[in-house]
Amino acid sequence: MITGVGSYLPKNKFSNESLSNFVDTSDEWISKRSGIKNRHFVEDNENTSDMAFFAANKALENAQISKNDIDLIVLATTTPDNTFPSTATLVQKKLEINAVSFDIQAVCAGFIFALSVAKSMMIEGMYKNCLVIGADAMSKLLDWKDRSTSVLFGDGAGAIILQKFENIESKYDDWGILSNIIHSDGQFYNLLKTTGGVSTSQKVGFIEMEGKEVFKHAIDKLSTSLDEALKNSNKNIDELDWLVPHQANQRIILAVADKMKIDVSKVISTVKDHGNTSAASIPLALDNAIASNKILNGNLIGLHAIGGGLSWGASIIRIGTPKIL
Ligand code: UT7
Question: What pTM does this model have?
Answer without folding.
Answer: 0.97
